[in-house]
Amino acid sequence: MCVVNMTLSMPEEYYSLMKKHSEIKWTEIMRNAAIMKLREFEDAKLKQELLNKTSEDWDDARDLFKF
In CA terms, which of 8, 16, 37, 66 is 20 to 30 Å from 44? Predict the structure, then answer.
């Protein structure tokens, strides 16, 4: 697996608060949040693709997924 570095801009007020809590691994928090959001997005995209492929005469297809 290739790992890349990112730069994140943060409002000063929140950055100051983060500095006060150096016991927290902020990199890990940000990485996990990004991964979770990407998975949510990809899952929603896949659900929409599946719904688009279902037969038009199956009106209850949307009940298969919670949006």
Answer: 8
Contacts of 8 by beta carbon, 8 Å cutoff, 6+ apart: 30
Residues 49, 60: Cα–Cα separation, whole Å: 16
Q: What is the dihedral of CA 53, 56, 57, 60, to 10 degrees?
A: 70
Which stretches of the chain drop beneath a pLDDT of 50? none
CA dist 55 and 57 (Å) reads 5
Q: How far apart are CA 35 and CA 42, in angstroms?
A: 10
